[in-house]
Amino acid sequence: MKQPLLNEQQSSATKNSVLFGAAFLMATSSVGPGFLTQTAVFTQQLAASFAFVIMISLVLDVFAQMNVWRIIAVSGLRGQEIANKVLPGLGYVLAAFIVFGGLAFNIGNVAGAGLGLNAMLGIDPVLGAGISALFAIFVFAVKEAAKVMDRVAQLAGVTMLGLMIYVAFKTTPPVKEALANTLWPEQMSIFAIITLVGGTVGGYITFAGGHRLLDAGIKGQEGLPDVTKSSLIGIGVTGVMRIALFLAILGIVSQGYVLNEEGNPAAEAFQYALGDVGIQVFGIIMWAAAVTSVVGAAYTSVSFIRTFHPFIEKYSNWFIIGFIIVSTSVFLFIGRPVLVLILAGAANALILPLALGVMLIAAHRKDIVGTYKHPKWLTIPGIVVVIMMAIFSVKTLMEEIPKLFS
């Protein structure tokens, strides 16, 4: 009589591990080296008004993620397969955007991991990048790679979350001022909103958790409660990280300290808050953020091509390892190609409206979702997100890209 109960408990524990793993995979993927720098720069520029940017970006994140994750689960298909059903060939276009963006940004993630080990242990950044890449490769080289990936994402996420909250308390930020600006900001920046949303939910990040749940067999209408739970946990973790980091840096800039935007503003903020040990704390956060982003980008990018050929499906882990090796090699032997990263950023800003738009069309196609009825409370806000991000992304890119080449 006890054995079935034990099996049931083991099954429940396994499922919860997958749900939290998918949530933290999305959360840690969205909190990469670029996120740390962007938050420091925008907080210095907008001060307490950046609270409004965070609030708006969180609202957009909620509706983007919940729509995408639900449609993937109900259809039982990956993003590229859904896109190909909506319009033949569109899946290949979407996959190309995702893979190109993931590869280009992984170069920055590998670089960030090297800088993290440099700040934490004093290791040369190039050597640190190589060591970090080997760690990421090991995750996918072991027999139960998916489980290891889940654990790494959870451990890194909890570590980052704890340290960010600690630093936020140490800097004693003007919380009342931040709360006041959440709904009525003194300054407004569309560019900050687009950058933050694109960096935390754009590109491969939109699909990271949904594809992980699908690979674990959580799908169909019966799986929707679990999908919703996992997506909300991921968004919640990301939101708390954003808010904690923002408050930590706000506490510093509100005291009149000016961060060097051309250097490493996030590292400066941590050093100012905690003294010399702040550099080590920043190094831990930077490395955890970067290496989990390397893992998330590689896993999700390859998940967009694995359905195109049985060979890729069979040896998907080796393709993931190859993805990591290529992005690391570009950093080690060529350096960070600025132009590629700029173009990848431009693509990333446009992927969200394309991807979410495709998902919303699929949500109302019986040949894709069967008898499932997608709720209007998700459809309507989702359409608003698509329109807003499409207009603002194109407008922002047309204004900002020429400046980068002038």
UniProtKB/TrEMBL annotation:
<dbReference type="GO" id="GO:0005384">
    <property type="term" value="F:manganese ion transmembrane transporter activity"/>
</dbReference>
<feature type="transmembrane region" description="Helical">
    <location>
        <begin position="375"/>
        <end position="394"/>
    </location>
</feature>
<feature type="transmembrane region" description="Helical">
    <location>
        <begin position="85"/>
        <end position="107"/>
    </location>
</feature>
<dbReference type="GO" id="GO:0005886">
    <property type="term" value="C:plasma membrane"/>
</dbReference>
<feature type="transmembrane region" description="Helical">
    <location>
        <begin position="18"/>
        <end position="36"/>
    </location>
</feature>
<feature type="transmembrane region" description="Helical">
    <location>
        <begin position="189"/>
        <end position="210"/>
    </location>
</feature>
<feature type="transmembrane region" description="Helical">
    <location>
        <begin position="42"/>
        <end position="64"/>
    </location>
</feature>
<feature type="transmembrane region" description="Helical">
    <location>
        <begin position="152"/>
        <end position="169"/>
    </location>
</feature>
<protein>
    <submittedName>
        <fullName>Divalent metal cation transporter</fullName>
    </submittedName>
</protein>
<feature type="transmembrane region" description="Helical">
    <location>
        <begin position="340"/>
        <end position="363"/>
    </location>
</feature>
<feature type="transmembrane region" description="Helical">
    <location>
        <begin position="277"/>
        <end position="305"/>
    </location>
</feature>
<dbReference type="Pfam" id="PF01566">
    <property type="entry name" value="Nramp"/>
</dbReference>
<keyword id="KW-0472">Membrane</keyword>
<keyword id="KW-1133">Transmembrane helix</keyword>
<keyword id="KW-0812">Transmembrane</keyword>
<dbReference type="GO" id="GO:0015086">
    <property type="term" value="F:cadmium ion transmembrane transporter activity"/>
</dbReference>
<feature type="transmembrane region" description="Helical">
    <location>
        <begin position="231"/>
        <end position="257"/>
    </location>
</feature>
<dbReference type="InterPro" id="IPR001046">
    <property type="entry name" value="NRAMP_fam"/>
</dbReference>
<dbReference type="GO" id="GO:0034755">
    <property type="term" value="P:iron ion transmembrane transport"/>
</dbReference>
<feature type="transmembrane region" description="Helical">
    <location>
        <begin position="317"/>
        <end position="334"/>
    </location>
</feature>
<feature type="transmembrane region" description="Helical">
    <location>
        <begin position="119"/>
        <end position="140"/>
    </location>
</feature>
